[in-house]
Write a structure and sequence with these properties.
flat; mainly alpha; 125 residues
């Protein structure tokens, strides 16, 4: 599924946006969000799967931007192994929590129940 979406949707859309001189950040956001929403809809045509796709698209975008921000600082981090380890550990933990929260939308049958579960998880219910 991933390879198909990359070859027939993501890459053509990226080329189309680049041809229109869309700024890189916007190109990444649009392509990742739209691809993940379509992958969500492939799993089922419900609002939950659209939200799941948006959630993961935003996560991919945030990861991309974080990676780009870290890239010029990589040598500096490599010289500080403890700090490098801490950044890696916090990044990994944040990614795990973000993805786990996103699965609430995938696993539950409807939006109100998903919101209720997220509310309980965050102490709002």
């Amino acid at each position: 599924l991933t390879q198909w979406f990359r070859a027939y949707f993501f890459n053509p859309l990226t080329r189309w946006l680049r041809g229109r001189k869309t700024p890189v950040g916007w190109t990444i956001l649009i392509t990742q969000l739209s691809t993940m929403v379509l992958i969500g809809l492939w799993h089922g045509v419900t609002l939950n799967f659209v939200i799941w796709g948006l959630w993961h698209g935003l996560g991919l975008f945030a990861h991309n931007r974080w990676s780009e921000w870290l890239r010029p600082r990589q040598d500096w981090l490599d010289e500080r192994p403890r700090l490098h380890g801490a950044v890696t550990a916090v990044s990994t933990l944040f990614t795990f929590i973000y993805v786990a929260l996103g699965w609430v939308w995938f696993a539950l049958p409807d939006g109100p129940l998903a919101w209720r579960v997220l509310g309980v998880l965050f102490g709002a219910a």
